[in-house]
Inverse folding.
């Protein structure tokens, strides 16, 4: 997936939207064929949600509110297809009925876990981190963090590493 200005997930999403829409249509067809909602939910979790979360740690931090809402709308649509009773419910209630969490918090958790894996010295991405601070200096800081934060001019072009150093340490 090529990266351009903004978010690759949505800005260049015509193939991705088409892919997700096709998969949602398949779930509609499966529901019409009488497939139980537990299997439809499994279909969503195995086939549709991975497309929505592909490479999420890379682009999650740079989504704006409307882009997050567009992605959540896809999950809302899937829940309403799977659970007929969720059509008139608020989204948070529908998530509870489906036993799911919102995609924003899930992407944040994925990003946090990915950053934890980068912190391991055995990670091939560990070399991207700045040199750690002196332990003697850490004892004198109010909010100690092992790695210094990387400063950016704007939030728009912030890398995942600089975002993670500021939010996940």
């Amino acid at each position: 997936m090529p990266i351009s200005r903004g978010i690759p997930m949505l800005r260049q999403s015509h193939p991705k939207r088409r892919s997700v829409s096709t998969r949602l249509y398949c779930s509609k067809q499966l529901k019409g064929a009488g497939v139980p909602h537990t299997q439809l939910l499994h279909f969503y979790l195995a086939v549709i949600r991975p497309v929505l979360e592909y490479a999420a740690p890379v682009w999650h931090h740079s989504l704006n509110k409307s882009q997050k809402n567009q992605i959540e709308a896809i999950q809302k649509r899937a829940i309403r297809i799977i659970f007929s009773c969720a059509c008139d419910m608020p989204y948070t209630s529908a998530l509870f009925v489906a036993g799911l969490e919102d995609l924003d918090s899930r992407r944040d958790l994925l990003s946090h876990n990915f950053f934890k894996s980068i912190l391991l010295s055995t990670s091939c991405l560990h070399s991207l981190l700045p040199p750690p601070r002196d332990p003697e200096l850490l004892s004198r800081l109010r909010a100690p963090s092992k790695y210094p934060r990387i400063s950016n001019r704007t939030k728009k072009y912030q890398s995942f590493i600089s975002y993670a150093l500021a939010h996940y340490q």
